[in-house]
Each structure stands twice: as C-alpha cells, then as structure tokens.
Specification:
CATH superfamily of the largest domain: Peptidase S8/S53 domain
Helix content: 25-40%
CATH topology of the largest domain: Rossmann fold
Number of domains: 3
Largest sheet: 7 strands, parallel
Radius of gyration: 25 Å
CATH architecture of the largest domain: 3-Layer(aba) Sandwich
Distance between the termini: 79 Å
Strand content: 15-25%
C-alpha cells in the first residue's frame, strides 16, 4: 500500500511539474511541436526583477552607459542557469540584454528542460515576418537638386537656411540593408572617411541575418541565394527598402536633395532577409544600436549609439506575433528610450479603418508612431489608424504624421524610385529629430522633450473618422495624431527651449483634466506651502500663484495656444514638474 501511494504521489508530482512547464511554453510553439519535428526556432524570455529608471537630466552618453550596465548585469544574473544548460547540451545560442532573452534552436526535450528553470518566464516561437511592402511608382531619373515635396511640406529646407542640417547627429536605420556607397549616402556614412576615401565598418554596421528565410521557398539554396550573402561585414541591401528610407533621412548630392537631415551621419543594421525578419533579428539590431560592436560582434560601446532610430517594419499577429510575445520588443523599445534614443516607427499600411495600428513597435507607449500624408496635406488612405485595440489599451496612436505618398528617394545602384507607405513617413520624422538636436545639442538624449516638441508644433489636422469614442475632430486624434510635423516650428521651439526640468519620480499633486480646453486644476494630497508656476514648453514663465494650505489651484488656459505646457511646484525642499496638453 505504501509503495502504491508513493507511486501515485510521484505521478501526480510529475504531472503538476509538466503542467507548470507547459504553461511557460507559448501555445503557438506548443502547437508547432505537436504538429512537426524539430528543431524549433525559439526565444527564451526571462524574469526581470527591476525596471530601468534613469534620470532624464543625465547626458545621453551617461544614460546609454548606465542602461547598458544595468541590462548586462540583469541578463548575467537571470540567464546564468539557462546558459549553463545550453552549453552542457552543446546548443548554440545568442543572448540578448535589451529584452532579457536568448535565441536558440531547440528540440522538444530541450524546450521543456529549459521551461523547468525558475528564471525562465516563457519560451516562444521566433516567427518569420514579411515586410509591409510600400507601393512603388515609376522609375525617376536624376534631376536638379530642388528639395523633394515632403521636405518642403515639413519646412525642412527652411531649417537648412538657418544653418541646421543635422550636423553632429547620428541616425540609425534597421531595415533590409543599405547600399552604403550610393552617391547620395556614402559621404553621410559614419564609417567612411571622405578625405582618405577609406571605410571602417566597425561600430557602424551590423548584419543580423545569418540564414536564408524559408518563407522565400527557394528551390535551391547556394551562397548566392541572397544577393548580399549572410552576416556580411559591409553594408549591403538585398531589397531596396532600406536604402530608400535612409535616402529620405540623409541623402543628398549636387543633383538630388532627398534627405531631411543631409549633414547627419548614419549607421545601420540589416534585420530582414529580402523582406523577411523575425523578432530575434529585430532584437539583435535593437541591441546593437544600444551599444554598437566591432565586426566580430565584440567590445560593445554605448557611447557610439545613435540619437534616433528609424523602424519601417512590422510583426503582425497572423505571422506569429501577438500579445503573449510582444513584451520582448516593448522591453527593447523602453530600454532604448531610457538610454536616450528616440525610437521612430511607421504606423503601418492597413488603413483606413479604426484599430489598424496593431503590430509590435507601432502600438507601444514609448514608440513614436508615424502616419502618412499625401502632397495635398491629407492623410493617406492606406495609413493605419488608432486607437490601439489589439492589446485592449485603446492607446491613442499615431503620435504624428508626415509625408508618405509618392516619396522619391534612392535605391541600389544609384537609381531612384518613388514609394508610398508609412515606411516613407517615418524617415521624415527621424530626420526632423536630427534637425532638432543639431539646432540645440543640449536636447540630445532628452527623448520626452524631443517628442513633445514634435507633437506640440505639428500642424493640427482633423478628420471625420472617430474611433472608440475619440473624435477625429479632436487634437490629438486617431488619424493624424497631433498632426503633420513642421520641422521649422519644431526647431524654433528647440532653440527657445530652456532648462525646465522634466518629470521627477513622484509628485505630491495631480493635474486635471489633462488634456484640457479651458481650465486646469492642481490638487494636492497634503497641506502644502508652495509656489506654483505655469510655463510654456519653451520655458517661458506665464503665470505664478502661491498657496499655504491643502487646496485646489486653478489656471484659466482658454486663450492659450494649443500645445504642451508645464506646471512647476516649488516648495522649501523640492521642485516638482508635470506637463499638460492644451487643446481646443
């Protein structure tokens, strides 16, 4: 009888343990395991017992180094057991810090061995994802260097006349690769020395593509299946999409004025193989941008990180990305922002219905999401709309809009094409970020401030479409966000920006309603003796009130222009800052 009870206990314990392991395995991967033989392309995510919180007032290089150090320590602690097990099993793997996960190819037995480890959060399939292809127009030849319509629409050419052309700013692009020695790009590449005409790709280029994507269904795979090759040591574009986006950010020569920030330098990472990427390749590029490495993928240096990254790619649910694995990309976006990098993403080409902003990177709070407008300054029909319903947050996206229809830029072999898509709109915004920083270098790394400037200076645009109770006639709205960007207004505001400090860890007051059209109220949680000051976004003092009790304080904002404002509460020991939005 005792032996029988012991056996029953053992079986029950084994069943419970197996069930616990199974719950850690993403259902998509579990279905794949049940339907086919391995090995399976997997991402192993780990628990993190902290969140990265960095002082907004640190310089960008300090932020980057600090974030990298914290993430490295966290990954070393939480991944140690899994790394040891993978080494013991002789399984090759790649570790990520930026989202605390490991990429490896595993068979069924190994999946459940790893799932049994306490620090493992979940194991998921690493799906292949197809590029949201832009719409292509006719070939366009060289012509005189009149700025492209999108550059003129956002007034970037007027910013150039002020002397701000992106100088001193590094732009990053992760895409299908880049034709680095293209006539309009070569002198803008950080790895190229114009005088010596020599190139050094260390810290300036990374290739995350190590294998041919099976979704191409190539009948024969040879060394030439991909026109660039795999894990190449110099920038190369196997598609044209990446080269086109980079041209819109920095491209220019005596015959072509196609780049918003023509004197910025660029660095890059290939994250798609002929238009197909995976969460692992996206993460690899995100991590490289956090701390670029040499060509041996060693000696990471966060001081060489870019100021802004353009992301014109998606990861739709139909191809294996969903709310159960989006978090790994969101961790990457959050950590890059903490490191002082602006993450610009394209909203997608699934419009015009509501709730079509629905793929990773585009939906995240800390992504700066961009819709597309046409040359008549109205929203493109294909531009995806908010709100974000796919994660039930109903978050208002996009943040802003920018030119994205019939955008002329460079492609491989010194040719030119006009493409349409939100992939073309995002680079206009990344270029505008570069113009802002070149005008006021003290804003480098101040992601919230830069994004706030772009939002508050955008040309207000409305639409009859309402989504989830948010009217298209409001600002911001689910169609245009805050509106179509205006680089000139943004740069002027950046030049006027003073040292109004951003949000502290906690405030003893709340502001409501926010946004507001006529009045704001400041409510305190305890008796307070303080001075309350109202500032414009560029740091100009607009009004002052004093209190010495627990009470509500009101400011009438009816006559103020739409935009972002600050309330600063100054007591004996501290200054506290909160921002609010004025709308019509």
């Amino acid at each position: 009888m005792f032996k029988r009870l012991a056996l029953l206990f053992f079986v029950s314990f084994f069943t419970l343990n197996a069930n616990a392991q199974s719950k850690k395995v993403h259902f998509y991967l579990e279905n794949l395991v049940n339907a086919s033989d391995g090995p399976y392309d997997c991402l192993i995510a780990f628990h993190s017992d902290f969140s990265v919180e960095i002082d907004e007032n640190l310089e960008k290089k300090e932020k980057g180094s600090l974030v990298y150090s914290i993430l490295n320590q966290n990954a070393n602690n939480s991944q140690r057991e899994a790394r040891d097990l993978l080494d013991e099993l002789n399984i090759a793997f790649k570790t990520f810090l930026i989202a605390n996960c490991i990429h490896a190819k595993l068979n069924e037995e190994h999946i459940y061995q790893l799932a049994a480890l306490e620090q493992v959060r979940t194991i998921m399939y690493n799906p292949s994802v197809m590029l949201d292809e832009p719409m292509e127009s006719q070939e366009i030849e060289f012509r005189e260097a009149e700025p492209e319509w999108g550059i003129q629409m956002i007034n970037a050419d007027s910013v150039w006349k002020m002397g701000y052309t992106g100088q001193g700013v590094i732009i990053g692009g992760q895409d299908t690769g880049f034709d680095w020695d293209n006539d309009v790009l070569i002198n803008k590449y950080r790895g190229y020395e114009t005088e010596s005409q020599m190139a050094d790709h260390n810290y300036n280029w990374h290739d995350a593509i190590s294998e041919i994507n099976p979704l191409h269904m190539d009948s024969i795979i040879t060394d030439n299946t991909n026109p660039c090759g795999l894990k190449v040591l110099a920038p190369c574009d196997d598609h044209n999409h990446g080269t086109h986006t980079m041209g819109t950010m920095v491209g220019s020569d005596t015959l072509n004025a196609i780049g918003v920030a023509p004197d910025s330098k660029w660095i890059a990472c290939r994250n798609m193989e002929r238009g197909y990427g995976t969460p692992a390749t996206y993460l690899e590029c995100f991590e490289w941008f956090l701390a670029p490495t040499d060509l041996n993928d060693e000696n990471p240096d966060p001081n060489k990180a870019p100021h802004v990254i353009n992301n014109s790619w998606s990861c739709p649910e139909m191809e294996g990305c969903n709310e159960l694995n989006w978090f790994i990309l969101e961790e990457a976006v959050n950590n890059l922002k903490a490191a002082g990098v602006v993450v610009v993403v394209s909203a997608g080409n699934s419009g015009p219905a509501c709730n079509t902003i629905s793929t990773p990177a585009t939906i995240f709070e800390n992504s700066f999401t961009v819709g597309a407008t046409a040359s008549n300054d109205t929203i493109a029909a294909f531009s995806s709309r908010g709100t974000v319903a796919v994660d039930s947050s109903f978050r208002l996206k996009p943040n802003v809009s920018a030119p994205g229809v019939q955008v002329r830029s460079c492609i491989r072999d010194n040719q030119y094409r006009s493409f349409s898509g939100t992939s073309m709109a995002g680079p206009h915004v990344a270029g505008a970020v570069a113009l802002i920083i070149s005008a006021n270098p003290s804003l480098a790394g101040r992601v919230d401030v830069i994004e706030g400037i772009l939002e508050s200076t955008a040309i207000s645009k409305t639409d009859t479409l309402s989504c989830d109770g948010v009217s298209g006639m409001e600002i911001p709205n689910p169609v245009y966000g805050f509106g179509r960007i205006d680089a000139l207004a943004a740069v002027n505001q950046a030049l006027a920006y003073s040292s109004v400090q951003d949000l502290p860890d906690s405030n003893p007051f709340i502001i409501y309603p926010n946004p507001t059209s006529d009045k704001i109220s400041i409510s305190f949680d305890q008796r307070t003796t303080a001075t309350i000051k109202l500032f414009s976004y560029d740091g100009k003092l607009l009004s002052t009130k004093a209190i010495n009790t627990k009470q509500n304080v009101d400011f009438n904002v009816t006559g103020m222009a739409n935009g972002i404002y600050f309330i600063r509460v100054e007591d004996v020991n501290n200054n506290y800052i909160e921002k609010f939005i004025k709308v019509d």
